[in-house]
Task: structure prediction
Amino acid sequence: MDLSNPDGRGSLKITRMTISEDSTSFDFEGRVEGYGSPFLTHEYFHNAQDRSRGKLIGEARTFLEDGTLISTPHMGTFRREQSNVYVYFADACNNGAVNFVMLNVDILTKEVDLKFWEIRSAD
Result:
């Protein structure tokens, strides 16, 4: 997989951040090439030994311009460097598409850069 050439890009904003003792939750929304205006919810669980990395679970929903609903679970990993979080996960869209996705989350500006690589195209 050539990570220097994503199949699509997007720009999201953090719309909610909730902090608990064991995890941090985020809601995101924005625009993604080929996927319209998605809404994502992620929960990040920190490793007990190192709070700068861990696992994530989440969901995404989007409506395309023609009204088609696409949904997908997210599961992956993250690492944090100061106020930037680097997120890596795979999705499994209800239209059959599977993507590898990378997010660069800037907590201070609330800006999120999204890149994805299509592993399997939609049915």
Observations:
- The CA atoms of residues 99 and 122 lie 10 Å apart.
